[in-house]
Amino acid sequence: MERWQRSIEVIQQEGERRQCRLFTDREGAAPADASDVCEVILSSLSVRHPRQFGACWLASRLWQDLGLDQFFSEALQERRGPVEWSKVVELLAVNRLCDPQSELGVHQRWFGTTAMATILGTEEEVAAKDRLYRALDKALEHKEALETHLAERWRDLFGAKCDLLLYDLTSTYFEGQAAAVPKAAFGYSRDHRPDCRQLILALVVTAEGFPLSYEVFEGNRADVSTLEDILNSVERKHGALGRVWVFDRGIVSEANLALLRQRGAAYLVATAKRKLAAFEQELLKADWAEVSGRPDIEVKLVERDGELYVLTRSRERAERERTIRLRALHGLRDDLGKLSKQVRTGRLRQRDLILLRLGRLEERWRECLGVPQKSRADRHGIGLAVGSQKTA
Question: What pTM value is reported for the model?
């Protein structure tokens, strides 16, 4: 109560200052009509038009620390309307960090519940629907300059290095015909929607997880055919330095590995499981080494034919696969027992029905048994990767 009283100052017309008390309902308080009392009637207080501030303010500060406010102000300085385009781009980025929604969602719902107009120092036109839709198209024109700028900020702020890069692909699909998207095409669908046209998204990140570059490919583009384009893109924006590339077996081919060696780059990539048969003797030996910080993971390096192979095995994964397999075997055994009992008691006599029931059991337990989806190496938690000597 005393703190409340000390926090209130009344400045009169003559400039004289005096303290006023907020509440008069405590024992010994002055009457409400006293000259030093500024009474607050609690029952009359209400909250109107609350605004989310803290998260938005923090996201805006991060935007400034990355230097993106200055970057977009310079990049889009000739594209100003009622509101600077740089403010519109910042609004979209803050929304993506705090409460991801579509541009229409930002316009209709999210913007009105936040203090972004105050934080950005703009009017409500910053969240106009058409401006939100057009903002990213304007930012896209500066994609390469933006990626270069962010890479420099990663190095300055976090000491991030670009000498080890992780590369992978994903896809996104369209429900409609996507007639206005030339690259949309039918292809292998990671989303299990082969009936929809899609795009392939390729992303390169640093070892710390910072995005370094991305590209958009046609929806029917094979993963293995994208590596050269990505190498050209990264080298054009960040220099042709010797780097270590890490990617999965979907991008691996002899031509791609030869391309990396030709460019002076090293690599650590997953290899086909069929090659494990050539390392049977090495798998049986006991000279495995534990991975620091991961006692359940063991590795072994094997040099062969000018390449350095990395054998891995996981006791945890092997135990998990064994448990799944045993559970499946017990379930199959119980179902076969029920089927056998029905045959013995005469409840199931027709040969065709018996075969049909057996087929259903096989279909039911196929995935759990790992036939034929999981190989022997999968069930024992064994993996194989190949790296250039430079990687080691």
Answer: 0.71
